[in-house]
Amino acid sequence: xxxxxxxxxxxxxxxxxxxxxxxxxxxxxxxxxxxxxxxxxxxxxxxxxxxxxxxxxxxxxxxxxxxxxxxxxxxxxxxxxxxxxxxxxxxxxxxxxxxxxxxxxxxxxxxxxxxxxxxxxxxxxxxxxxxxxxxxxxxxxxxxxxxxxxxxxxxxxxxxxxxxxxxxxxxxxxxxxxxxxxxxxxxxxxxxxxxxxxxxxxxxxxxxxxxxxxxxxxxxxxxxxxxxxxxxxxxxxxxxxxxxxxxxxxxxxxxxxxxxxxxxxxxxxxxxxxxxxxxxxxxxxxxxxxxxxxxxxxxxxxxxxxxxxxxxxxxxxxxxxxxxxxxxxxxxxxxxxxxxxxxxxxxxxxxxxxxxxxxxxxxxxxxxxxxxxxxxxxxxxxxxxxxxxxxxxxxxxxxxxxxxxxxxxxxxxxxxxxxxxxxxxxxxxxxxxxxxxxxxxxxxxxxxxxxxxxxxxxxxxxxxxxxxxx
Length: 470
What we know:
It contains 15 helices and nine strands. It is α+β, with helices and mostly antiparallel strands. The protein has a domain of 254 residues: oxygen-dependent coproporphyrinogen oxidase, CATH 3.40.1500. The strands form two sheets. Strands 1-2-3-4-5-6-9 form a seven-stranded antiparallel sheet. The longest helix has 27 residues. The termini are far apart.
């Protein structure tokens, strides 16, 4: 007996349905009807908050999805037409996780390159005080050691007496539910009233739509003593033994603050910024710079070229050669901000050959990716310089010159550096932690003047008149 003609078709249809994956049968949550969505890859969407609201939780930074982490690592950008919002809380949490884990990985690399067998000590304080293990290499350090969901604290790690690193410090600090002093609030208001800090806030027109999204919200914020704030920072200072290897300094930080409302019962311990009656503020800052003792043009050029490459990848339209815009999010503006900040006015000279520095950049998905990329570039920008110069010989006179220049480094820190002044102004400062960036050995000679035509004089000439290296 022959089968009805329709039966084979029904059997084929059943087989096809059984072979389909669940994603082919059941749609993803949320709207998927737009034509642009249907043409996109099936990978999860990355998200960021495009503006702040006084009704939203206000901690600064990031989506914690698996794709967000892999996208950050690979530099993937899936566009902005399918972006949805996340809270600043998530942005801050991702930055805290990144900084905590990156500290451990970077220290591993520095110890390996140094090759002396010397290791960084570990001094945990605050919410990190109960776990001072020397080994942070066994996975995520943040959830069990005061990171996400923890309180205020940090980890100060120091190496001394290495082959390359005479003294190095790598510090992680996390502040939650802090209260601004009147002096600190006044300083922040002063930076913002000038259109931003000398460390990178734009003084001119801005082409970044991401900054424009926040202008109205930020302009409404009145920063005052007693306001609540939270912050996280990772900083690195590596003072080298050989005077032909420049000192390296870098940091990345994020935080926020808002008007404190004592009558607000909706306190959220996981929130970066204490929510207020109407307004909040969150931002990022960071950068890196070189302090050479003997000028090797190739080293400084390569260092700046590396930084410019990072800036151009993230903000390709912000650095046109024929435009003199002082746009914060461009290499030229951040290089200029670095030169302006690391300056000793009493000496009429800059501390080093610069790098980039930026501050008060609104905390968004895009600015977070940039900050983390800058941090990932710290060692790749500096280690090739170490490799080329670490075995060069030097004289007692060259070593003494290095110590004289280190005196200028300490002079800047004590007289002009905002972080040091802020740290020492606290009621109970961690003096050792604040001063950990100080050089291990310095010298002061009265009225020292380099010999005419010497390499020392050539360096000072550049420090008095910074160059455009790339």
